Amino acid sequence: MTFFLEVLIGGLLSGVMYSLVALGFVLIYKASGVFNFAQGAMVFFAALSFVGIQINFGLSFWPTLMVVIILMIIVGVLTEKFVLRPLVNQPQITLFMATIGLTFFLEGLAQLVWGTDVHPLDIGIEDAPIEFILDRFDMVISAFDLFAAIISGTLVVSLAIFFQVTKIGRALRAVADDHQAALSIGIPLKQIWAIVWSVAGFVALVAGLMWGSRNGVQFALTFVALKALPVLIIGGFDSVLGAILGGLIIGALEKLAEVYIGPMLGGGIEGWFAYVAALLFLLIRPEGMFGEKKIDRI
Amino acid sequence: MFYRENGQFKISYSKDQALLTISQDKFFIFALVAFSLLIVPFIASDYWLTAILIPFLVFTLAALGLNILTGYAGQLSLGTAAFMAVGAYAAYNFQIRVPNIPIIFSFIGGGLIAAAVGVLFGLPSLRIRGFYLAVATLAAQFFIPWLLIKVEWFSNYNPSGVITTPPVTFFGFIIDTPVSKYIFILVIVILLTILAKNLIRSKIGRSWMAVRDMDIAAEVIGIPIMKTKLIAFAVSSFYCGVAGAVYAFLYLGSVEPDGFNIDLSFRILFMIIIGGIGSVMGSYFGAAFITLLPILLENIIHFLAVALSITISSAVTSVLQLLIFGALIIFFLIVEPHGLARLWSILKEKLRLWPFPY
Amino acid sequence: MDKLLDIENISLSFGGIKALTDVSFDVYKNEIRAIIGPNGAGKSSMLNVINGVYKPQKGQVSFKGKYWENITPFKVANLGIARTFQNIALFKGMSVLDNIMTGRSLKMKSNLLEQALYFGKNKKEEILNRTKVEEIIDFLQIEHIRKTLVGKLPYGLQKRVELARALAAEPELLLLDEPMAGMNIEEKQDMCRFILDVNEHFKTTIVLIEHDMGVVMDISDRIVVLDYGLKIGDGSPQDIRDNQKVIDAYLGVG
Fold first, then answer.
1. Do residues A33 and A173 lie in contact, with contact meaning Cβ atoms separated by under 8 Å?
2. Would you call B135 and A105 a contact, using CB atoms and an 8 Å cutoff?
């Protein structure tokens, strides 16, 4: 039983990490209707810049963080200016493909500037079992995982509140619904998008720090973005709450499947399990858990 | 002056619906085919054949497959490479397990098996649309390579699922020189292109486009949506499967499941984005572009490095490629979302008027 | 007069919204039946029910004497019912000719292999159907735009192309949803002429939603009036013109 709980909790915690990445997607989708495939690249870019600055300029944690935040804001603004604005009102698929282009661009740029080596990232929390829980409950739960979960949870909750309650949040939702309509009632599209992409950049940074410390900052980080897709499917593309729950579900299911079903199939099912699970889920509920049902009017 | 349709009246529907309606087009295409079949084999170097022309043809085939599914039928797919893998491994199994089977049958068999798998992973499209469908194809993209490694029978119990294809013979001739491989693949690609164009100008092509543009309206006028989508998956996967088989047998010689990864799927997607979605010609343009670009970039960078007397490592070169790639895609989407094929049509329009400005 | 279509006690709701409540009327063969009423009255919903796009919670539809069970838009199309849409539902990525050819889908029977090889059965079929489609193109006078991409055409011409596509199916019953919306007087006259021609020449029964009262009174044989999902009038144009309820709800005085 304890083993099951251990695996479950481990899965939930890594699921929170998925939620973090998914959150970035949801933000941008909610606010601009764009499915930002480059979110993973932004995670990678942020993480690599962080290590790069630390190593090359010898700055400590907080100053580096500040610099990278500014950097991500710049990335957000430039993306809005050079990618989104020229493509405003093009069909969704075109914007999606542009973000794929952006992915490659950011990956190339990051590695051009900071090099292609894999870097470890240390944010001061160890990936070791928490003594307290180990002694009390005989379960191995990593301090790092727990810390990541707390950070991610806080971020997610604050963003959820932000969207629902504030004026800017409302404006963002209007923009996501219909660019032209939002423009016509005077919502400053450019600024809104710049804000959103910067916030998404910040989320990417947090995700990058978390994932980077865990697995090292490497190119494969971009593919974490792909894993966020099943999360978005289950949670819906436009729900912050869904991103949280979807991430938890996928994280837990994935770990449990690997441990309990994996051996029957020869192992290694973590590579595809999330996608197949999402697929099966979609067959039952095509709009995702919290997504809105599309009613076509003809 | 040269590119005029004056005097070319179509006096029958048959002529109007032909594949090549303008006689200058007909001449051009025939000349091109003749050139590539009869002259290129004699003037192209081995390097050009093996590093550029053969992969170009293989990828054109895969791009054609993806274009049918995503460009014409509007079903986004990120699993192209997986279907290529199915084709490659199926063809391999046919070839080594069925005694004396002609290679063409193995290729077709590979394509058919890929088509069946395509239909299986296309079933979700009946309930799911748009990006969600892309995720379903991702499931195929990650599951299939895993399966190909796990079930050792597929790779004839070779370690890590690697398969080395047996030599290809065609009516007694062994196809192992760059020239013979090139001609063999070229003929296959030309034939399959003609079949694709025929499908597109027939009922199924129109049905695909109808489902892409507005599926509810399509259903109301009597187009069976389920059947149409599944046929799109089947035909598309057939093309990708044959492309995979040719990729394994005539280009690489030995492949492994990891070689059919998501990177390859994206590459082919880029081909149709840049070449032109929903255009057969676009598949050719896109494949050419993506095949030539890395080589072009390498040469430019090398040239610059020599000219500026600096050393640029290969790691930097590949990273630079990523960056330029990404920028080019964004550039294309902004400037001409319909890709090179549209630019080509615009060029032809201008050619019609030449030498007059309007 | 034979009844072609019989609508019996149809009730349709979406969640809490009642689109149609207990609506019944019939349509005779060969007639032009108009459905009128203020916006939101449920007219398009009624057409969607006839089309099989919406399933009514209560009530039945019978066509040529047969009641419908588990109807789908595909089955409806196979029965010989075609329609046009309020917000044009043309395939924007295809030419006018191809759009109209899709209307012939049910008549074309070649299989996949025959289509891939093209020459032979498929080619004959393509030419046969192309000939039919050209007749319709002639009839609606859209020869000059047959190769144009539909998305590039002005609204009025798009509506005509949509009509052509519906006609291509050689339907027995044609449902037209505001075919004259957004047209100027000349275009409306043309469209009226076409509709009357279709009715006389091809003997097609027509059910038509339209807001222009002049047109409605002129060309329809009988009219159904809907208001807030309820039927408030049913009869000849004269009956409707004198119907007080209809005047209050919709026509106004004078």
1. no
2. no
> Using CA atoms, how far apart are residues C81 and B220, in angstroms rounded to an integer?
9
Record: contact A272-B143, CB cut-off 8 A: yes
pLDDT in tens, C174-231: 999 999 888 888 889 989 999 999 999 889 999 999 988 889 999 999 999 998 889 9
Interface mutation target, options A106, A234, A279, A281, chain B, most CBs of B under 10 Å: A279
Chains touching B, CB cut-off 8 Å, 3+ pairs:
A, C
Nearest to B278 among C92, C93, C101 (CB): C93
Strand, coil or helix: B7: coil
Q: What ipTM is given for this predicted complex?
A: 0.88
Question: What is the DSSP pairing of strand C32-36 with strand C205-209?
Answer: parallel
Q: What is the pLDDT of residues A184-236, one digit of tens each?
A: 888 787 777 777 888 888 888 888 887 777 777 766 666 777 888 888 888 87
Q: Is C14 exposed, middle or buried (0-12, 13-18, 19+ CB in 10 A)?
A: exposed
Task: List CB contacts of A153: < 8 A, sequence separation 6 or more.
Answer: A16, A244
Which string of b and e fits B237-263 if b means at least 16 CB within 10 Å?
bbbbbbbbbbbbbbbbeebbbebbebe
Under an 8 A CB cutoff, do B319 and A296 touch? no
Q: What is the largest CA-CA distance in chain A?
A: 64
Evaluated on CA atoms C123, C125, C128, C132, the torsion sign reads: negative
CB-CB neighbours of C1 under 10 Å = 9
Q: Which CATH number fits domain A2-284: 1.10.3810, 3.30.70, 1.10.3470, 2.60.40?
A: 1.10.3470
Contact A253, A274 (CB under 8 A): yes
Q: What's the token pair of residue B19? A: 């594949």
* Residues in chain A within 8 Å Cβ distance of C87: 297-298
Domains and CATH numbers, chain C: 1-80+171-254 (3.40.50.300), 92-169 (no CATH)
- Three-state DSSP class for residue C3: strand
CB contact under 8 A, C116 and B199: yes
Distance from B181 to chain C by nearest Cα, in Å? 25
Percentage of chain B exceeding pLDDT 70? 96
